Amino acid sequence: MDMKLPFSTTGMMLHIDDSMDYEVLSSSIESMPKSDKTEDEIVLEAMAHPIGSPKLSELAKGKENVVIICSDHTRPVPSKHIIPFMLKEIREGNPDAKITLLIATGFHRATTREELVGKFGEEIVDNECIAIHDSQDMDAMANIGTLPSGAPLLINKIAANADLLVSEGFIETHFFAGFSGGRKSILPGVSSKVTVLGNHCSKFIDSPYSRTGILEGNPIHKDMIAASKMAHQKYIVNVIIDADKKVVHAVAGDAIEAHAAGCKFLQDYCQVVPKKAADIAISTNGGYPLDQNMYQSVKGMTAAEAAAKDDGILIMVSNCGDGHGGEGFYEALKNCSSPADLMAEILKVPQDQTKPDQWEYQIQCRILMQHKVIYVMCEEHRKMAQEMGFTVANDVNEALEMAIKEKGKDAHISIIPDGVSVMVKKPE
After folding, report:
1. Catalytic (active-site) positions
2. pTM for this structure?
3. 216 — phi, psi (to 5°)?
4. What digits encode the pLDDT tens for the residues 285-334?
């Protein structure tokens, strides 16, 4: 079998002998009944029938200061098919509304102008008011209360001062928040570093409910829902996209109800149950833009973790052209005596002393404590990956050969073409 795996913008071919014991674990989004509607029409239909909410034009009436929270450069949100329609409908409700597009960078770097143009197009970038959130700028934050976890909720003043706060986004499985989208536009999207760190504390990350596709009982999700309500996030337009990053479904309306409906829709298509636990699990981070660094690639790796035996070998196919993606993430893994020792240290850290990137290296530690990980990445950063405790390979076929040498030719292999788009139910 020849399969093209997502890798950067080009892809990478996997060659596997049909005589081998393998299975492919992929979302069934691609097998959805094909709609005859365009991406624009799918979004417009959702906005015409909002869930649990009046239409956006109705909400905008009498609201002078309207803020649309937009996803940043690390999210493949097809904003060109969302934002123009949100702007249009807001102005139908109030032609004089002052509208700000607030870029929800969360804990990421600032989005560049080039990236904004790629998201929105020149016309919107040149003509609309755009502000970029900076979680490190405490002077730009407003304290609006205390979350259920006890962490303070400090959000960007632009969002806090809005007469109407709405957001765009997309829904995918998320490796510790259950699903992305909806309430995540607030926390971590436009929250301060203090709030993000409190929400991503070691106790919450260690919870068995802080996993892909799980919302009920998830302490991270509980805080995020509270943040959405406290910030008065009134309305969302969230989409679900296919492997080609095309809109296949959309929800609009109440920030909580519409998001829940979108998650239910996605779960029905993205949950997969392997035939058996894998000796070797191959995963990707869905290609560009999600595979730009190792930090983000932990997400796709958790899909392989869920599919594999406790001592299974994981192969992560992710370009990581930007390197590690987080200095704290890199230093923690590079300098630890072992993943187990690092995990013991992490679990002792109190909520209010959570360190930047701690959640990411905590999950990476969890994986490395159980699995050998072979990274297939750009040549430039392979030495760095080795310093962090990973094995590296030139391409996925070499990585598979390395794994088979250890696990044998009878090894069961799970291939996960897009590790961020599936919810792998761990085999019994």
Report:
1. 108, 174
2. 0.88
3. -65, 125
4. 999 988 999 999 999 999 999 999 999 999 999 999 999 998 999 999 99
